[in-house]
């Protein structure tokens, strides 16, 4: 939603400007990281200059470590947000993917560039062109996430952020 995008952008800017903040952790609510964009909004003209791509670039450019705590699902733009983070921790039951292709769209927030850089072209092409959901254990083997946990993902992300 526009509200979520604005909150993410504002939070990142505040964290970057605050010298007492040493790292940032991004998580979702209610056991889900993010299901991505609401496709009903694709037919609406661009509003208020808020777009996901520049916000992900802001995450990527942060001088402070940014850790994604992935629970539930990270699909489409949600996975693209996680790809912009410096580190990713996923709950063992998490699922990730870029399902846009199943409705005839390509990922629109540079996931097609970030994913191959992270896991290599062959694996990225499979994920991008099939739209399949990747379980956390496979994501770990591919290098898509840095760690898989069975307990509190948010706490694990905070611990990693403190380490780095």
Automatic annotation (TrEMBL):
PANTHER family: 3-HYDROXYACYL-COA DEHYROGENASE, PEROXISOMAL BIFUNCTIONAL ENZYME
Keyword vocabulary terms for this entry: Isomerase, Lyase, Multifunctional enzyme
Signal peptide annotation: none
Example of a GO MF term: delta(3)-delta(2)-enoyl-CoA isomerase activity
Stated family: In the C-terminal section; belongs to the 3-hydroxyacyl-CoA dehydrogenase family.
Record-level GO BP terms: fatty acid beta-oxidation
Lineage per the UniProt record: Eukaryota, Metazoa, Chordata, Craniata, Vertebrata
UniProt xrefs under InterPro entries: ClpP/crotonase-like_dom_sf (IPR029045), Enoyl-CoA_hyd/isom_CS (IPR018376), Enoyl-CoA_hydra/iso (IPR001753)
GN (gene name): Ehhadh_0
GO cellular component, one term: peroxisome
Catalytic reactions on record: (3S)-hydroxyhexadecanedioyl-CoA + NAD(+) = 3-oxohexadecanedioyl-CoA + NADH + H(+); (3E,5Z)-tetradecadienoyl-CoA = (2E,5Z)-tetradecadienoyl-CoA; a (3Z)-enoyl-CoA = a 4-saturated (2E)-enoyl-CoA; a 4-saturated-(3S)-3-hydroxyacyl-CoA = a (3E)-enoyl-CoA + H2O
Species this chain originates from: Fregata magnificens
One Pfam family matching this protein: ECH_1
Protein known as: Peroxisomal bifunctional enzyme
């Amino acid at each position: 939603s526009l509200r979520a995008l604005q909150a993410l952008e504002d939070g990142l800017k505040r964290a970057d400007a605050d010298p007492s903040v040493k790292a940032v952790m991004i998580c979702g609510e209610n056991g889900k990281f993010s299901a991505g964009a609401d496709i009903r909004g694709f037919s609406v003209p661009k509003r208020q200059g808020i777009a996901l791509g520049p916000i992900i670039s802001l995450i990527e450019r942060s001088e402070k470590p940014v850790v994604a705590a992935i629970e539930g699902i990270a699909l489409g733009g949600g996975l693209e947000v996680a790809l912009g983070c410096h580190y990713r921790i996923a709950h063992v039951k998490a699922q990730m993917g870029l399902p846009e292709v199943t409705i005839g769209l390509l990922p629109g927030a540079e996931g097609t560039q970030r994913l191959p850089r992270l896991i290599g072209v062959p694996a990225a092409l499979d994920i991008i062109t099939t739209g399949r959901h990747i379980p956390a254990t496979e994501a770990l083997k591919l290098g898509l996430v840095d760690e898989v946990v069975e307990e509190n993902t948010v706490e694990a992300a905070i611990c990693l952020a403190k380490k780095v």
